What does this fold into?
Amino acid sequence: MTLRADSYSTTSEVKAYTRHLLDGQTAFNSTTRPRATELEKFIDRASGVLNAALANVGLTIPISNTTAKLSCDDWVTAQSVKYVELTQRGVGWTEQDGSRINVFASLHKKALEFARENALGFKRLGAAVSHKASEGLKFTGEDATEERPDLDDTGLRQPIFRRGLFEDSSVSLVDVSNEEDDD
Amino acid sequence: MGYSTGEALILTRVIACDNFDANNTSQANWKILNSGASDHYAILRPGTFDVEFDTICTYHINWNTVIEVWQRYTDETTSQTNLYARVADLFPIMAYPKLGDSGGTILEWSTILGGEEPEEMWIKDGGPAWLRWKLTLAWKEQGEITYAE
It folds into this structure.
């Protein structure tokens, strides 16, 4: 198994923090705890959570800007290291209630916080944006409805109400009523 | 000679035992437990000692060296048996009553005296993370006094 193409970090980066768990092996493999395939899954999953959060703030995933990607690598590495530590027997069970589960519980929230906190920085670094923040306001910059070239395009859903509707002599109240009946 | 030289001889004998090498043994260096070099380690440290006079000018020091055998605790069965096996690996040391000392300072009496009960070792975040068994290896160093007053 290898890491997904849209994942961040690497097994080597995680190993740098968890070398004490290799038990004589030079890298995570089929004899270590966790196994190499399990570690790769940890990285893929943490990357998936992060990518979802990055998509939430409109960024194109996976992040390819080298500086922004370093930041994502770091987040996924830190999360994966926690996963690796939690594979150890009994580690994380402290006197604090729910101490072990806390690592997992807020993962999605933490990813979203990370994405929101870094979104502007990533954009300024040049990270590609799929959905701009202004997306929802786009119509304000468009031509008036009656001047739009796609007004008669039956393949597009057209607004029932539009500016000037009630002053438009070509539209009668009967027509509007009929449309409602059709629905 | 002194304690450190004798302990170094013991370390050499430990490294010569099966399943031990320079990467998983040390003299009072517990940091190797975090090295990931092995799932078991032998760490040597001083134990108690006392001095006995043989004549008015000669004496011997009864040194004790504690060999801490550490085994990573990964599950309920193999971790324990692995610890027992690693301790058994060290008993060939008893074939060297002089610990390989060619200088004649260490008396031909060195032996593993015994050990404490195995114990489970916990870390701050929980555990058990390790099993530890402490063996005591006794050895005698001969000395001579030249009185200065």
User: Anything to note?
Assistant: Residues 142-182 of chain A form one domain. Chain A has two domains: 11-133, 142-182. The CA atoms of residues 57 and 119 of chain A lie 7 Å apart.
